[in-house]
Design goal:
alpha+beta, Alpha-Beta Plaits, 2 domains, three-stranded mixed beta sheet, three-stranded antiparallel beta sheet, 7 helices, binds iron/sulfur cluster
């Protein structure tokens, strides 16, 4: 029938219009900022640096390998390696970023930095309220501003952060067992605890 598709389309529109008065699910408009949208795990905006524990500086996972800096398409990451080292979560001495800046006004939210990081140290955040009054450098953020806890990662994207936590806990347990075996061997005892 001529115009059947138009009539069907109008019927869907009318159904949603009438339904929006009785069903909140049919009304996608929300009263922002009083109401907040519930974001899906898939939402990715700008990167953040993950840290473990309570101290962002001590707990930063980044070892300053600079892979993300090299791979970032618009080159908006700037890293300077430390001169000294600090122990990572396995107790291995690692370099850390003395400077880690990202120019968010240049970042195109591609997520490549998070994909290429071998240390699960940089992830994509969901924060979108970043506007400020500084036209020059207001979106140039440093490592302190970029630091977010592992708990934050778990909150916004548990299906990504959960397996990472499990892998890191298993690696920690393995490293601890190896260290204990080494200590026993050094003390002249067999590593399995026998005589
Ligand atoms: S999200 Fe893309 S553009 Fe932004 S810092 Fe990461 S690699 Fe660079
Ligand atoms: S965030 Fe990851 S890829 Fe980038 S420098 Fe740190 S450890 Fe390397």
């Amino acid at each position: 029938m001529l115009g059947e598709a138009i009539i069907k389309g109008m019927a869907v529109t009318a159904k949603n219009f009438a339904g929006s008065y009785v069903s909140k699910d049919r009304l996608p408009t929300i009263q922002y900022p009083e109401e907040r949208q519930v974001l899906s795990e898939a939402v990715r905006n700008f990167p953040f640096l993950v840290y473990d524990g309570d101290d962002w500086e001590k707990g930063l996972r980044c070892v300053s390998c600079q892979i993300c800096e090299k791979e970032c398409p618009p080159k908006c990451i700037y890293i300077v390696k430390s001169k000294d080292k600090k122990p990572d979560y396995l107790g291995k001495p690692q370099l850390y970023p003395a400077i880690f800046d990202i120019d968010l006004s240049v970042c195109m939210s591609c997520g490549i930095c998070a994909e290429v990081c071998p240390f699960e140290a940089i992830m994509m955040d969901q924060d979108f309220e970043l506007s400020n009054a500084d036209r020059f450098g207001g979106l140039l953020v440093n490592k302190e501003q970029l630091a977010r806890s592992h708990d934050h990662h778990m909150r916004i994207r548990p299906s990504e952060a959960g397996p990472i936590e499990e892998r890191r806990a298993a690696a920690q347990a393995k490293a601890k067992a190896a260290a204990e075996a080494k200590a026993k061997a050094a003390a002249g005892k067999p590593a399995d605890g026998g005589d």
